Amino acid sequence: MPNLCIIPFRALEDGTMTPAQLRVLCAIGAHTDRFGAGVWASAQTLADEARCERSTFFRAATYLEKAGFVERTARWSETDGHQLTSMYRVLLDAPKCDGGSGVAVRRGGRKAVPPKRLSERLPPAITPDEQAVVRECWEAYPPRSEPHHWLSAQTAILALLRAGESSSSLVWAAKGYATYCETEGSTGTKFVRSIARFYAEDFWKGYAIVRVYGRTRDEWARSGQDVAEFDRLSTTTGATTDD
């Protein structure tokens, strides 16, 4: 990371920021002008300078945006409507409240917060069933010249599983994306997303619709067919995914 960065002083007084969030703020502040604007560096560049994974960078940037330390402006493609990149701006002044006055910054007198025990900071241990889902997603996902990162992929998939997402949907999303990449002939690093980004940024949702003999599970149910048979077939033969 460069030696000079511009960040708001109030960020140093914030008692809730994690070291990773502070490093991300410093990485963004290293690319800004003296007014805090004009940060067009890519997410990967900023993540590298903050010494964290892209998924960690996006989570930290979301926190910084909600906390009022940075402002993000998305830049979209004029051809296909996809987001190309984001411009970040460091907010040197405190955000204004509805009354027009600056948000008060706490100075001193903060109550000391005891550090969390290690058992409170670590996520629950991965179960064999979760490990099996991660492995199945990993093996179904399309390869690329730049290797995927196992731990990042595992973290992203586990977060979805523990948020209540269906394991079969996650696996079918990987298979559907692999089919799409093979059909389009897009197999290089430039075209194939990392598996961690695929799941962490919800890109997987566009490939998670399972069809058996051309119909979804809801369509089977509406037509009066046995959905248990759909579930059986979707794990054996006759199943496809939407591109």
Description:
This protein has helices at 9-12, 19-29, 43-49, 54-67, 118-121, 128-140, 150-162, 167-184, 195-200, 217-222, 227-234, and strands at 70-76, 83-90, 210-212, 239-241. The chain starts with 8 loop residues before the first helix and ends with a strand. The longest helix is centred in the last third of the chain and has 18 residues, at 167-184. It is mainly α and 243 residues long.
First-residue to last-residue Cα separation? 40 Å
CATH architecture of the domain at 9-94: Orthogonal Bundle
Helix count equals: 11
Please tell me how large the radius of gyration is.
22 Å
CATH H level, superfamily name of the domain at 9-94: Winged helix-like DNA-binding domain superfamily/Winged helix DNA-binding domain
Characterize the main sheet: 2 strands, antiparallel
* Annotated CATH topology of the domain at 9-94: Arc Repressor Mutant, subunit A
Low-confidence region ranges? 98-113, 117-122
Order of helices and strands: HHHHEEHHHHHEHHE
Which shape, going by the Cα principal axes?
Answer: elongated
Physical arrangement of strands within the biggest beta sheet: 1-2
Mean pLDDT: 76
Number of strands: 4
Helix content: 40-55%
* Structural class by sheet pairing and helices: mainly alpha
How much of the sequence lies in strands comes to 5-15%
CATH top level of the domain at 9-94 is Mainly Alpha
